[in-house]
Structures are given as structure tokens and as C-alpha cells.
């Protein structure tokens, strides 16, 4: 129970942090959306009840609540709701057929799209198809499961603050792996407690705040910025030295875009990590290493000379 | 036994034994952490972390014990400096180690019940026990509880700064240990000091 509350704290503070950062930008709020937000943007909504002949106020289903601040600060902020949802949404009560309509997929719009070609959606899709999520639950598990249609904003590519990216990306995974309700949208099983599954990792809180889940659970690839092939748990990184060494794999994933700028600086290996974390074994300083080696060597040499002289001259 | 003096009480010997063994463990695992490598492993990283943490904590406890014992027993007197002549004593002892010893001269500060350490021994033990050990223990505890460290110190990450002090101090202590062990071979016979540290009698 205590451990679980830790997860919640982590998620809570993480969300708080992100919420603070998302200052609303000046973007034209479509009046069409305002109509939807008048209900889906608050915890209660009112409508005119024809049968009773008066306005009634009801509670909004919390899962159908959409945060307009997050909405207007995301990748698809210029969209009106009906770009993805049926026009029938404009009527209330909503047409019951509406809930059965298929939603567009990322690839429907982004496949072969020159404007977003640099993201390499085709490769991401392929990696996702091979992931444990898709291979086991190809129908239920779609890209939308991780990419909230109403709030997903790119981070890893654009956010200079790596800690925020880590919190953002980990919250995506924890939205299921620390929340049975969402997890069971996909699988009737009980979700394993991630804190317990990672008992072998010391300083767990520190680790989860400084690396992303995908660092250990995906095979990083060159063609995409964020690897998408989540693998089964037996393929996950468990060897500490994968990160804690000179050839730290973090340089090929989390610190990819900084890797070229600062591979070493003032003699610190993998210096691009240092602004955000200090990884034992990966951030040692070559100058210090050389100096200490030389000093140790000289001291040993002096000792040997002293010892030999003592033996010869006594 | 009659021309021998009892210099090392039981608690000093026990503390010293634990201290030396733990220190060796700390140096070896510390090096394994610093030079962690994917292709070559002496001790697996996670074992190094555990051994280093446990040894560090036990060593800290032993150190606090040493502080108390030294404070409340006469042994602490050997760690006090006279008001005058410290520097001259150091020079004299230094001259002996770098010159006189090769000519078969006697040590200028022979061991007695009143004077267990020569000036060089004294100053190095005081620096080690009252300056460097506290630094390495404090920084070690900081790394063990990173949540209590300030996030940044002088523009670098707090852990980074503390770790630099930790490893530099650790290096200085390791060098001390090399020199210390060597100087312990300077006795009546090369092994006699080690025997004293086991039996207590000098
Ligand atoms: C870094 C670890 C070590 C520290 C901090 C340390 C510190 C000390 C101190 C403070 C004393 C004086 C104790 C007293 O009588 O109050 C001492 C004595 C001694 N130590 Fe160590 N020691 C270390 C490691 C070692 C090791 C590894 C050995 C041998 C393998 C060793 C051999 C001796 C001997 C033989 C003496 C008695 C001679 C003398 O008083 O100079 N020490 N050490």
C-alpha cells in the first residue's frame, strides 16, 4: 500500500509539474469547440430537457472531461473536435450510433505526409506492430492508448528540460501500469505492481525520475527519435553497466539529441548527461583518472625505491 | 616481554582490524564502480553497489566508535599536538625517513608509553581521522540519500559535485593506506609493527 502511494505521489507531482509548464498559448479557440467544451470542459453540464420542459444540470462523466488548457497546447491544437469525431456530436443527446464509429488512426493522416515525414511514422508503426502490446492485443491497443488524443504534446524532441520529458513519458506508461482501471481496458488480468517488479533496482525513485521506462523496455533504433518496440520483460535491460559505463546506452536514447554536442567536456565522459543527472561509471573524468593513475604509480615507485635502498644500505 | 610496552588496547586493535578490512572492500568496490565496464567485470555492478553501501555504513559506525573511544580513553592524548616545535619535529622525522634511515641512524622519536607516534605519524593520523574520514563519510552519506542533496551546487548537479569530493578524498585515503602499510614495515623487523597491532605489545 505504501509502495502504491509512492507511485501516485510520483504521478501526482509529475502532473503538477507539467501542468505548471503548460502556459496557454494564444491560439484561436474555435467557437465550434467552445460548444463542446461547455459540457466536456467542466464537471457539470446543463441541457434543455424537452420532456420536463426545463433546463437540468447533471454531472459530467470524469473520463469524458477534456482539459481545454491542455487541448490548446498539444500537437493537434488547431483541430476542431469534429475533425476526428462525427458531426452528430453537435446534437445532444448524442446519437447512440456515435459511440460505435471507428476513430481515425495516426497513419490515416500521417502516412506519406511530407510535413511530418521527419517523425518517420511508418517505422514507428512497424515497431509498434512488433511490440508486446500490439502482438498480444492488436485490436484494443492502438496508438491512442499512449497518445491521449486531447493532450498529447511532443516532448522528447522539443523539450530542453529532460526531467520533464522523463516525467511525461513515464506517466504515459504508468497511466496503465499504475492504474488498474485503464489497464483493464486492454486486459482482464490484474496489472503487476511495477514497484515490486523493479525491486532489484536500488534507488528506484531516483532511477524512475532520471530514466524512462522505454530506456530499458525497448530496443533503441536509429531511424526514430523515440523507440516504440516495447518488448517482453525477459528482454528488458537488467544489467546496470548498460547505463553505468563509458558506453552508456543512455547516450543513444534519452540523450540522443544532445549526444553530438557534448560527448566529453572538461574531461568528463558523456558530459551531455551531467546537466540533468550524474551516472556513476558513465561520467568519470579522464583527467582525474590519468592524474590519479600517475600519482599512484609515483607513490608505488617511491615506496619500491625506498624499500630497495633500505635493504641495500642497512 | 619485559622490555615491551603495551601500546594498542583491545578496542584500538579491533577497530583497526575492521577499519582496514572495510576500507579495502570500499577501495576495491569503489574502483569497480568508477571503472564499470560492459565487457569486463571484476565484481558485478549491483554487488559492488551493495558491498560498498554496507561497508561504508559499518565503517561510519566504527568511525563514530573510534571518535568516542579516543575522546574518553587516554589513547586520545597521542593525537594531541604540543604547543611548540611541531614543524621542527616534522622536518626532523622527514629527514630521518629520507636520509638518516639509510645510514642506519636511530629514529629521532623512539616509541614510548608517552609517545606512541612520531610527528609524521601523528600529523597523518590526525589529518586522516579528523579531516579526511569525516569528509568521505559525509559525502558518502550524501550519495546514499541523494534526495537530501541540493539539486545543483556551483552549476553542476549536486550529486556530481559531492561525488567528485568523495572520489578525490577516497583516492587520498587510498594513497595514505599504501604509504601507511609501507611505513609500518619500518620497525625492529619488517613485520614487528604488524605483530604489535595484533598482540598489542610493542
Ligand atoms: C585506510 C585505512 C586505514 C586507516 C584509516 C588506518 C589508521 C591507523 C591509525 C589511526 C593507527 C594508529 C592507531 C592507534 O594506535 O591509535 C594505525 C596503526 C597501524 N596500522 Fe593502520 N590504518 C588503515 C589501514 C591499515 C592496513 C590495511 C594495515 C595493514 C595491512 C595497517 C596497519 C597498521 C599497523 C601495523 C599499525 C600500528 C603501527 C602504527 O601505529 O603506526 N593499517 N592505523
What does this structure look like?
The complex is a heterodimer of chains A (314) and B (202). By secondary structure, chain A is mainly alpha-helical. Chain A is 41% helix and 5% strand. Chain A has 3 domains: 1-23 and 113-238, no CATH class; 24-72 and 74-103, no CATH class; 284-314. Chain A contains 14 helices and 4 strands. In chain A, the strands form 2 sheets. Chain A has a two-stranded antiparallel sheet with strand order 1-2. A two-stranded antiparallel ribbon of chain A has the order 3-4. The termini of chain A are far apart. Chain B has a domain at 8-58. Helices cover 63% and strands 2% of the residues of chain B. Chain B is built from 6 helices and 2 strands. A two-stranded antiparallel sheet of chain B has the order 1-2. In chain B, helix 1 (10-34) packs antiparallel against helix 2 (45-72) and helix 2 packs across helix 4 (119-144). The mean pLDDT of chain B is 89. The A-B interface holds A 200, 202-203, 205-206, 239-242, 244-247, 274-278, 280-285, 288, 292, 295-296, 299-300, 303, 306-307, 309-310, 313-314 and B 33-38, 41, 44-46, 49-50, 97, 101-104, 146-147, 156-157, 159-160, 163-164, 167-168, 171, 174-175, 178-179, 182, 185-186. The structure holds protoporphyrin IX containing FE (HEM). Protoporphyrin IX containing FE binds next to helix 1, helix 4, helix 5 and helix 6 of chain B.
